[in-house]
Amino acid sequence: MSKIYDVLILGAGPGGLAAGLYAGRARLSTLIVEKGQDGGQIAITDSIENYPGQIVEGESGPSLIKRMTEQAERFGCERAHDTIKAVELDGDVKRLIGTKETYEGKTLIIATGANPRPIGCKGEKEFLGKGVSYCATCDANFFEDLPVFVVGGGDSAVEEAMYLTKFASSVTLIHRRHELRAAKSIQERAFQNEKLHIMWDTVVEELSGDDILQKIKVKNVVTGEEQVLEASEEDGMFGIFGFIGRIPTTEIFQETNLEMDDRGYIPTDEDMHTNIPGVFTVGDVRVKSLRQVVTAAADGAIAATQAEKYINEHK
């Protein structure tokens, strides 16, 4: 591809689409490259309740992303469906080397996202969105007055478990060890929460049910004892949340000079600048405290505005 775009955007989640919208409105030539479906994690979210300005009567991840995609394209964003195998970030022209073509731009906005680390049990994929979740902030409301289980033992798992006690009838933390990895201050608050219970030395082996999650098979790693937890007839189902970490999508940047932390996330300043001039990062792949659609969209708006500024300064 001979064209050098003003802005290349890698990833079409909320952050990438918001960046495309703002770049397009600024009359910057913009290309969004995505290997799969638009939306990232939100594309598999059945219901959204906390995005400002959404359809109050009912909004799904796909419906929200569809409008974001149309809005970005309305302002002239071009699209490419390709899998990027390598990148060149140094120099005045950034390159994305895909299986179909090589894409060039004066700036690059990285919006590759991060995926929840799976629990690793049988039936997990089948019950995603039908009882399995990885985001308490997103989905807690759907389990109001129902029993909920949380897998993990670190800061995020314990904090999210406490958050879920505001909605669920009870919350049981399933942890494979006999002590939590969360900070002591967090543990102290957890132990004082009457709605929070802990299953020590336990792993989840299988999830099952009749279209919705109704049974969880667990195993004690010390005794080897197995048991099946079943939802009551009154409840009909329960929820299970996995909080054993997230995996940032940054493999293709490993051989570059792009700075990443020890987990693979990309640090930026408040204006989304990375350590490489002309390269910006937005959304879940960035080091940040809250990973939500609204924060990803804000990141994208900032990054596109900063990309325009960078281009104007380097004419």
From TrEMBL:
Keyword Flavoprotein belongs to the record: yes
Gene: trxB
Residue ranges occupied by any FAD/NAD(P)-binding domain in the UniProt entry: 5-300
Superkingdom of this protein's organism: Bacteria
Reactions performed catalytically: [thioredoxin]-dithiol + NADP(+) = [thioredoxin]-disulfide + NADPH + H(+)
Protein's recorded name: Thioredoxin reductase
Keyword set includes Transferase: no
Assembly with partners or alone: Homodimer.
PROSITE patterns: PYRIDINE_REDOX_2
Cofactor or coenzyme needed: FAD
